[in-house]
């Protein structure tokens, strides 16, 4: 149900993720050695001024733009895999496409969700959702967007081998019940379905265009099949991608006429921004943003995101005992990790999901997170360490060293070393196992790969602004519950929350599930990873939160001065 | 005589095809054996990595078949001029490569021009001014340049000429002739620096050998001016080894652009290859590596072909 991904630190390999991690230069150079047979080093040690993680102010958006702009040059960390998000869910494609395509619901900059192409939604009962399709919307080929098109799109998303098919697991039927009306029926009430419709499961395609393009749909040289404020002007494979404002857009006109996307990684990306060759980027890696801090003519904005750095224990046994896991959480120096691994651009955090997931009932979630921080201190105090040592003593330290799995990227290396230090401090022997970036992703998928490690230095994010999109990972039968946590009460709680449509009640159930998850230390939270927007100081307007993956951010981009 | 040429051509062509076939199998097997599971990258999000989903993906992309069957499938399509679709980009492999190859080719050609002009020039200078301070300076400076890995050179050049001075763009490959030259100067320079020492050293040595031959001594004795001797006798006789070396260096560069492409944010086939290897994008890795092998064969064959034209003595031995 969640859309987890590699995010901030790894080598961005492939489509395993809705949002690719930045290519760590070390990994890339190492990989190039394989290809080119020469020697390399880490180019990721870029300059920049460290931030103070504790003082990082998160904001949903940037000051509104005052004036029009003819052209903005935007950087991505990788070329989009494809612009057909049903087939390839890479984040580079999504950052572009969210300005071209529109969804039935829309994720707002403050991470709340509201009906969008579905202008109205009714729930006559828990298992029925009736959507009224907005009138007066046209696709970029001029054809009118109809309820039939919406139904066709939903069926395409739900098809067996499509990226979003699992979002439709509870759906029993989807039918057109009026000229502009669709009725969706559910086997079970599904609290997250409308949130999914604000994501890629809610994109409305132009069926005629998709059919025309056939197998080539979403590849360079094809027109788009959407209705958003921008249309795809040109995608030159391996060079650049240009979008331009769509003249007949039904909503407010964007201030920026054209956005030209190029892509570069690591130092090339940093240099392009430094020299003014590019106007902005949403930095996928905190280290990229750290390298650009205090650069003349550039501003940085940090926004709420669901992303987090976590430690995921495995069933191998070294961290089998929840008491040892709790002890590890108590003795981990999260502030040290944030400062030396990520230039202060991640924040010590006590829950496995970032604050961007709080799309509703924010005060309740914030209070719950504060309460949890006793189990996950920023910097362990003497009391924390004494408590941790006591836990280890009672449980008995594992005989074999705890093996920590990581790749060689800068951030992860720091987390791995901090984890080893924390374990050794409380009398648990530990060692680090580093694998090549291409192999790292296997830890997530292959239980056999995990058979060699006791804990993984991981990162995760969810695509829905609802923490409940995360806690199904702790279910007894979840493939992401590696440590074998089994608690019937927890399972009942999660299923109940997922079927509770009332926000306040679901928030209550969610915080309860969260408390149990953290108590059992199914995963160990390390830090939340805010979104980092790096922007030329001539420009302003777009959101700074994780909504940039699902919200037409370019439509708000414009000149600072009118 | 004509018949001999045809036979030789057929033999040469058969050899090239056999080499490519063998290379294609070795490459396929190597990519297949590399650690990591392509299905992981094809499955979608991390939570989708259930055993069922992975099995479904493996079946869809024929990843569950034995190596020989997968290779056979690829070869069969290849013979029908179909290089398949990229796993990662879902675009035609031929389109992906066609869009990126020009960038890499321009980069290599530019770098070749640079190392030929600078390397051969320095070598000639060192040979003519043999055993003087000029000679030592050339050897010293080129050795120093060769000891700097291309990615270090790339980063140093970018930060100085690109970021600090702002003379050159720091990313992209530019458009139009002048734009391309402007964009590719620093990358080509980083690529060429490492080859300078080798090329200048080979040039210097070849010139020295040629200068020591009898007919040069004879020419000297008959009072031909020194400049004439260097140009007509020494350099001419030294061309064979120089051209061979330059050809080999250039052929090697085709496969060595990746680091420089990354440092300068160029989308060439080098960066395409690394991405493909990292994500186990079989069809792309296969196509790019084969293209590199083909490029190598083409360049070395061309060198072989011009060699007899440069040095009449080779002709007899070759046939």
From TrEMBL, chain A:
Q: Where is this region: Disordered?
A: 1-22
Provide a GO CC annotation, any one.
ATP-binding cassette (ABC) transporter complex
Leader sequence range is 1-41
A GO MF term: peptide transmembrane transporter activity
InterPro entries membership = Peptide/Ni-bd, SBP_5, SBP_5_dom
Ranges of residues in domain Solute-binding protein family: 113-481
Q: Which branch of life, at top level?
A: Bacteria
Keyword Protein transport listed? The answer is: no
Q: For bias kind Low complexity, which ranges apply?
A: 7-22
Alphabetized, the UniProt keywords read: Signal
| Gene Ontology biological process terms in this record | peptide transport
- Name the chain's protein: ABC transporter substrate-binding protein
Which species does the entry assign this protein to? Answer: Streptomyces spectabilis
From TrEMBL, chain B:
Keyword tags: Cell membrane, Membrane, Transmembrane, Transmembrane helix, Transport
Residues in ABC transmembrane type-1 domain copies: 101-303
Bilayer topology annotation: Multi-pass membrane protein
Can you say where in the cell this protein is located?
Cell membrane
Q: Name one GO cellular component term.
A: plasma membrane
Residues that span the membrane, as ranges: 107-128, 137-161, 181-199, 238-264, 284-310
Which PANTHER family does this one have? DIPEPTIDE TRANSPORT SYSTEM PERMEASE PROTEIN DPPB-RELATED
Please give the name of this protein. Answer: Peptide/nickel transport system permease protein
Look up and give the organism this protein is from.
Streptomyces spectabilis
Higher taxonomy = Bacteria, Bacillati, Actinomycetota, Actinomycetes, Kitasatosporales
């Amino acid at each position: 149900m969640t859309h987890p991904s590699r995010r901030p630190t790894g080598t961005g390999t492939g489509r395993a993720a809705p949002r690719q991690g930045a290519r760590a230069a070390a990994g890339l150079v190492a990989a190039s050695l394989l290809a080119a047979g020469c020697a390399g080093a880490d180019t990721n040690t870029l300059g920049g001024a460290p931030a103070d993680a504790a003082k990082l102010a998160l904001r949903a958006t940037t000051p509104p733009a005052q004036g029009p702009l003819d052209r903005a040059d935007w950087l991505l960390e990788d070329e989009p895999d494809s612009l057909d998000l049903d087939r390839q869910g890479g984040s580079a494609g999504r950052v572009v496409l969210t300005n071209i395509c529109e969804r039935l619901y829309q994720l707002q900059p403050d991470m709340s969700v509201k009906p969008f192409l579905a202008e109205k939604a009714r729930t006559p009962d828990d298992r029925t959702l009736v959507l009224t399709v907005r009138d007066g919307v046209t696709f970029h080929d001029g054809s009118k967007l109809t309820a039939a098109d919406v139904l066709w799109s939903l069926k395409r998303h739900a098809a067996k081998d499509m990226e979003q098919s699992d979002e439709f697991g509870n759906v029993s039927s989807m039918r057109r019940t009026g000229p502009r009306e669709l009725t969706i029926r559910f086997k079970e009430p599904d609290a997250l379905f409308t949130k999914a419709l604000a994501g890629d499961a809610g994109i409305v395609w132009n069926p005629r265009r998709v059919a025309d393009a056939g197998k080539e749909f979403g590849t360079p040289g094809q027109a788009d099949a959407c209705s958003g404020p921008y249309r795809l002007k040109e995608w030159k494979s391996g060079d650049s991608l240009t979008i331009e404002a769509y003249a007949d857009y039904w909503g407010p006109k964007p201030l920026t006429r054209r956005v030209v996307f190029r892509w570069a990684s690591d130092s090339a990306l940093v240099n392009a921004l430094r020299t003014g060759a590019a106007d902005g980027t949403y930095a996928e890696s905190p280290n990229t943003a750290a390298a650009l801090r205090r650069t003349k003519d550039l501003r940085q904005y940090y926004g709420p995101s669901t992303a987090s750095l976590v430690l995921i224990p495995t069933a191998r046994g070294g961290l089998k005992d929840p008491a040892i896991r709790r002890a590890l959480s108590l003795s981990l120096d999260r502030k040290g990790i944030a400062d030396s691994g990520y230039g202060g651009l991640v924040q010590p955090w006590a829950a496995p999901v970032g604050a961007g997931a709080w799309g509703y009932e924010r005060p309740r979630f914030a209070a719950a997170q504060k309460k949890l921080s006793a189990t996950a201190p920023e910097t362990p105090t003497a009391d924390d360490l004494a408590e941790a040592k006591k836990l280890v003593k009672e449980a008995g330290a594992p005989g074999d060293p705890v093996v920590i799995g990581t790749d060689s990227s800068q951030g992860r290396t720091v987390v791995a070393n901090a984890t080893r230090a924390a374990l050794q401090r409380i009398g648990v022997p530990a060692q680090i196992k580093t694998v090549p970036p291409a192999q790292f992703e296997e830890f997530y998928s292959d239980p056999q790969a995990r058979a060699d490690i006791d804990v993984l230095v991981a990162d995760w994010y969810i695509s829905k602004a609802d923490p409940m999109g995360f806690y199904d990972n702790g279910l007894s039968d979840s493939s992401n519950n590696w440590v074998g946590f089994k608690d019937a009460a927890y399972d009942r709680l999660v299923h109940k929350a997922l079927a509770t449509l009332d926000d306040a009640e679901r928030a209550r159930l969610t915080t309860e599930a969260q408390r149990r998850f953290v108590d059992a230390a199914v995963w160990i939270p390390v830090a939340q990873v805010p979104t980092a927007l790096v922007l030329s100081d001539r420009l302003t307007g777009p959101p700074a939160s994780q909504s940039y993956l699902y919200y037409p951010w370019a439509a708000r981009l414009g000149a600072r001065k009118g | 005589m004509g018949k001999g040429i045809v036979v030789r051509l057929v033999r040469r062509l058969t050899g090239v095809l056999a080499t490519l076939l063998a290379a294609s199998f070795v490459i396929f097997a190597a990519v297949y054996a590399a650690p990591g599971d392509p299905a992981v990258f094809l499955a979608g999000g991390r939570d989708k990595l259930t055993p069922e989903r992975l099995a479904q993906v493996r079946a869809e992309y024929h990843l569950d078949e034995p190596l020989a069957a997968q290779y056979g499938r690829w070869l069969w399509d290849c013979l029908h001029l179909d290089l398949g679709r990229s796993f990662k980009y879902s675009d035609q492999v031929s389109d992906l490569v066609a869009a990126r190859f020009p960038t890499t080719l321009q980069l290599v050609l530019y770098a070749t021009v640079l190392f030929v002009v600078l390397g051969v020039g320095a070598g000639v200078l060192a040979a003519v001014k043999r055993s003087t301070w000029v000679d030592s300076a050339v050897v010293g400076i080129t050795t120093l340049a060769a000891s700097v890995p291309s990615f270090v050179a790339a980063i140093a050049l970018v930060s100085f000429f690109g970021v600090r001075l702002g003379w050159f763009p720091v990313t992209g490959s530019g458009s139009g002739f002048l734009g391309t030259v402007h964009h590719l100067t620093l990358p080509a320079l980083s690529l060429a620096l490492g080859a300078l020492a080798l090329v200048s050293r080979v040039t210097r040595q070849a010139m020295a050998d040629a200068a020591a031959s009898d007919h040069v001594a004879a020419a000297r004795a008959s009072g031909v001016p020194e400049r004439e001797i260097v140009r007509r006798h020494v350099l001419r006789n030294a061309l064979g080894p120089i051209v061979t070396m330059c050809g080999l260096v250039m052929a090697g560069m085709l496969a060595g652009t990746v680091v420089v492409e990354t440092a300068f944010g160029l989308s060439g086939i080098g960066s395409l290859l690394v991405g493909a290897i990292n994500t186990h994008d079989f069809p792309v890795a296969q196509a790019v590596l084969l293209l590199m092998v083909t490029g190598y064969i083409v360049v070395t064959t061309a060198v072989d072909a011009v060699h007899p034209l440069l040095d009449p003595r080779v002709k007899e031995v070759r046939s």
